[in-house]
Amino acid sequence: MREHRNVSKKHFCPACDHFHYQASSNVPGAAGACLLNPPSVFIVGMVPVAGAVMLDPEKQQMAPVIRAYYPPVGREDTCSQWTVRPAGEA
Questions:
Q1: pLDDT digits over 14-73, tens only?
Q2: Neighbours of 17 (CB within 10 A)
Q3: What is the chain's alpha carbon radius of gyration, rounded to the nearest angstrom?
Q4: pTM of the full predicted structure?
């Protein structure tokens, strides 16, 4: 299997225009996040909610707990959407 053209050209995520550095991340090996696309949405769980008007107090309504995250990327990750970072910009 051949290595990807971005790996052979050293086009890794930290040099990409879509890369955002994050100093502290709870993901092992991640150096930052890719901001190319909107964050991915995840349903973490369900929690009970109390409505303003409850017809039957024994029936609890549940609401989803929703979180959204940008994909974490490492120092040696790359993808097919790699875009060169413009020189001179932060």
A1: 888 899 888 777 778 888 999 999 999 999 999 988 777 767 767 778 889 999 999 988
A2: 13
A3: 20
A4: 0.65
| CB contact set of 44 (below 8 Å; sequence gap of 6+) | 65, 66, 67
Residues in CB range of 39: below 8 A, 6 or more apart: 68, 69, 70
Amino acid of residue 18: H
Q: What is the pLDDT of residue 45?
A: 94
Q: How far apart are CA 30 and CA 10, in angstroms?
A: 18
Largest CA distance in the chain: 65
Sheet strands (E) in 1-90: 19-21, 32-34, 40-49, 61-69, 72-73
Left (φ > 0), alpha (ψ -120 to 50) or beta: where does 10 sit? left
